[in-house]
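REVIEWER CHECKLIST
Item 1: Sequence provided? yes
Item 2: Single chain? yes
Item 3: Sequence as submitted:
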Amino acid sequence: MLAPARKILLVSRDNSQSETLKSVFARSNAAVLELFEASITEVVQSPRLNDVSILIVDLDAGNRDELVALQGIMTRFPGTLPVIVLTEAFDDAVSRWFLQIRVSDFLRKPVSAEDIAQVCNGILGAADQASDHSAKIFAFIPAAGGVGNTTLAVETAIQYAKTEGEDKFRTCLVDLDFYNDSCASHLDIEPRLDLAEIGPDGERLDGQLLEVMGSKHQSGLVLFSAICGVGQNGDISVAAVLRLLDIIASRFDLVILDGPRTWQPWTQDILHASDRVYVVTDMTVPGLRSARREVQRIIARVSPETKPLVIVNRAEKQSFFGSGIRKTDVERVLEDSFAGTVSNNYALVREAIDRGVSLETVKTGNAVSAELRKIVFA
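Item 4: Structure as written out by the authors:
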């Protein structure tokens, strides 16, 4: 049975443009075009948008009310409705804003019906490909500085990469601290992600450029870590970060994120898109309290449906039975968010970092790797 044709809705007062587009789409069974003869300000809450595969809006980029209406549509369908903008004139500020609100494409009028149809076909093709590919995203967030967040993120990424078969899946690690290259230092490889090259809003980034910006580790893991230098990577826009991760997620099956210590303007979006969020802390009273606060903040800012899990790193097993912090104390403080503990083995971790290899490479069957695997492979 043939799949039903997808609906493309054109919001425009230009009926002649609609007729020309209809004739182009009539040559294909992939999509049908419908006209909503109105201003974009009249369709923000329209139910006609609910079953649309692509929305094309003809607007005046100099009209503030129409730009506000466009933003209202993007807010109503965050990341779920591809929107193509047709407009006669716009400056660099407006084009950057289009990217920030994540418009799929914007075309300067006059534009041919064939060019519009080509953009639509590209979006539909990408959607078909994406329906068969959905990357898993695991985010590691430190509850405080120096708790070993990067170590656990790196080890998790390597362990997953080493389980891959040639025809199975690909794993990558993304260092979201764009001002330090900690992951690259851990793995002893050169960072290659050039944020200046991809443009202020990531507009120059595509799959081909992404390929040359990944650093390959001997384990098979691909790392995306920013090239750092004096005065480099000043202000990184939300649009640039989201576009970077969108393209990465379309090309890998598992994406491990090593998050920065402080919240950024894009942190909420990143965590909302993550399948798992791990908050990493250490076996101290301040560390446990910080983890609990971080869990509460993530739930409040991201979504009540988000269920962050806390990994207590550098745990001293003897403290469970001595006068220090006991496991029951940890469970009482963290409640349902407690995922498990990872043992403290400074010498093992230090040697792995110095050699740029996994903990398992240094010592097969070590407790740190085994305990971490029990948590992240669950």
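Item 5: Key structural point noted by reviewer: The chain has a mean pLDDT of 86.
Item 6: Recommendation: ____
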